[in-house]
Amino acid sequence: MNSKVVVVGQGYVGLPVAVRAARAGHTVIGYDVDVERIRRLGKGESYVEDIQDAELAELLQVGTYLPTTDPFDLDGFDIAVITVPTPLREGAPDLSYIESAAETLAARLRPGATVVLESTTYPGTTVELLVPLLEKGSGLSAGADFHVGYSPERIDPGNPTWRLENTPKVVSGIDPASLEAVQAFYATLTGTTVPVRTTEVAELSKLIENTFRHVNIALVNEMAMYAHELGVDVWEALDAAASKPFGFMRFTPGPGVGGHCLPVDPEYLSWRVRRTLGRSFQFVELANHINGHMPDHVVQRLLLAFNSRRRALAGSTVLLLGLAYKPNTGDVRESPALRVAELLLEMGANVRATDPYVVEAVTVDSKLVRCDFTKEELAAADAVVLLTDHDDFDYELVRDQARFVLDCRHRLETGATVEVL
User: DSSP class of residue 162?
Assistant: First the structure.
């Protein structure tokens, strides 16, 4: 199967899909409206940890991957995959990127082609939004003239074990023929496909996956707060609970949740329930509240630590270790570390931050100072807060040089100068 594949959106999801499709033998057009992003890709520069520059350069050289901002390069596509952002705006889904992608593809849609949505969204989006836009812009009929499906992305940036090619892929279509076409395409990219009967089921499956994680992380975060006040080591208790070989799955506390998935995806389900059924999704809303306020808890713990040492947080220097939302990646989307930095700056602290993976500027108060991870920075800080436990950090050096550490990831042993969340 050698098809012309268009991947709309070349971010953390779209770029790996495009590269995998090119490696699988397809001719791939990576389309994005971000001119600078496409310029970098055209030079063989990757901004996604899972894709190496050498891999991009090889595909560019043989001509199986073309990054472009020109919609005319999409003409004659066999398969189009939409991997654009779906952010929340004031608590409601912003599907404008999907709408724009649909309109661009509709103008170039031809009989027999297949369009697949991967962007996370609420159940019903494919049928209620995507299909009408494709039909209106093309003059064709979905099902009769072209295929449409939904396949939720399962990209986990920085995960060396579970990659696109070995992670089971949920696939769906608006009718049996569409499902067959969607499944046939993804069978060329991954070893296992999981077909479901409707696009709504596939859309909901993605929200279930992330809501499950979101709720359980909120549970252990709340446990961590109360366990600290009760004088119980929640980390040791979690280790003990995890020894049970059945009926338990380990989740760990942290300074909050980040990325597109956990802070955003459950909100889609909550919004859909409120809008359609007129009721609140209480588990999701409670989890949102707990996880969303974990940065406040981190700052409160740090404030209490300063008070116990008869020091003022205002005017003190705080060094943040890590800005990314997860270890060993440079992804700062919805990172709780950024909120921690904002809160500390509002309280008058001098905030410095080091992260070897985050190379671009971050949208935090301009008073935040970026610095390198050095012995001197550790020693000069009045407090160090470990927010993202990158493997590149020298934790022995942290323990030896820092005057005080608030460890939000439990990478250090507790002691006179180290507290864990």
Answer: S
